[in-house]
Design goal:
heterodimer; A: about 120 residues; alpha/beta; Transcription Regulator spoIIAA; about 40% helix; about 30% strand; B: about 150 residues; alpha+beta; Heat Shock Protein 90; 5-stranded antiparallel sheet; 5 strands; globular
Chain lengths: ~120, ~150
């Protein structure tokens, strides 16, 4: 099963509902293109909802980090929502849990962006 | 479980699609060996990362080259061997992904995860014979299988 991503706008924030696998190959490529496309459209505040992500590998983690730095360098923010236990554990192990802003409540996550530039 | 080792072997073409096949076998074998669900996932991930290294870095994604896997269940452990047809690599050459200066690197976490999830990780490279990675996960001595 490859990755699927559905985009919606909530109060000026792009919420990306992701599902499936974020792994080397198709999943990572899709995530990279998604971030690039959104930045290209001027959407600089991204909230990735990982609730239905079934598998993420070291390349997928790397792609999240890459997305985080790319968006930050453009003056935006990339945050994470609804980590599964497996993804949570991976971010803890790799010391990235403190790098990302992580939420389990969508309204709070959206509100945390402040006055978003869209 | 009887005292003789139980063995599963498979040969896969160097195609990333086959990584999921190896994951599925790893989950089933580790379940049969008596590992709990969390350890099954850790073993699955270690095999996934090792396969990626073998296909991507070892065999350079060349479909004419194969990756050989061997799962061997012992009374006290699961041993997994993954052999490619590449020219070898030195895992010591991979920078520590937990260091502050490497934390935001977009790669370099695969071997770290394998080491974290398994009890042993060894790499044996011989010129002309590819690279063989040996992964070992020990069973908790209190696990419920008949020993």
């Amino acid at each position: 099963m490859s990755m699927k991503a559905t985009l919606r706008q909530v109060d000026g924030i792009t919420v990306v509902d992701m599902s499936g696998r974020i792994t080397l190959g198709e999943g990572c490529t899709q995530l990279r293109e998604l971030v690039r496309d959104q930045l290209g459209k001027g959407s600089k505040h991204l909230l990735l909802n990982l609730a239905d992500v079934t598998y993420i590998d070291s390349s997928g983690i790397g792609e999240l980090v890459s997305g985080f730095t790319t968006v930050s360098n453009q003056g935006g923010k990339l945050k994470l929502l609804n980590l599964t236990k497996k993804v949570h554990d991976l971010l803890q192990i790799t010391k990235l849990y403190t790098v990302f802003d992580v939420y389990d409540d969508e309204a709070k996550a959206v509100g945390s962006f402040g006055k978003a530039e869209t | 479980m009887n005292t003789e080792a139980s063995v599963v072997e498979l040969v896969l073409e160097s195609d990333l699609k086959n990584v999921e096949v190896a994951e599925e076998v790893a989950r089933r074998v580790s379940g049969t060996a008596g590992f709990d669900e969390e350890d099954q996932h850790r073993i699955d991930m270690a095999v996934h990362e090792t396969l990626i290294n073998a296909i991507w870095h070892g065999n350079k994604n060349d479909p004419s080259k194969s990756v050989w896997l061997r799962f061997e269940i012992f009374r006290d452990r699961l041993e997994i061997r993954v052999r490619d047809q590449g020219s070898g690599y030195d895992p010591k050459g991979v920078p520590d992904p937990l260091k502050d200066e490497n934390l935001l690197n977009s790669s370099g976490r695969g071997i770290f995860l394998i080491r974290t999830f398994m009890d042993e990780y060894r790499v044996e490279s011989q010129a002309g014979k590819g690279t063989e990675v040996i992964l070992v996960k020990r069973l908790n001595p209190n696990h419920s299988s008949d020993q």
